[in-house]
Amino acid sequence: MLTSLYPGMKSEDLAKRVAVLYMLTDKKNEIEQVEKRLHSILRGQDFEPVSQRIKHYLRNPPEDLLATKAPPPSDAWLNPRASKALSEAGLSAFDYLTVLMESDPSVRLLKTVDAATSERVEVDWLSLKENQEAETLDRLLQFYSQNGLDFVPPSPESILVIKKLKEQSQQIDETPLISEADAAALEEDPVVFAQKAARDASLNRIEQPVATTPEYPDLMRPDPLLDPKDVIDFPPTADNPFHNRVIVYNHRSVFDNYSDEAIFGSKSQSMDQSDEFTQKLPVSKRYFDKLHSAILMRRGVVQQTGKGKIRRISFQILVGNADGLVGLGEGKHANSMVALKSAQIEAVRNMDWVERFEKRTVWTEMRTKLGGTELILRPRPVGFGLRCNPYLHQILRAAGFKDISAKAGHAPTGMGDGLGGKGKKLSKGSGLVGQQELERARGRKLVSLRK
Question: What are phi and psi of 30, to 5 degrees?
Answer without folding.
Answer: -70, -35
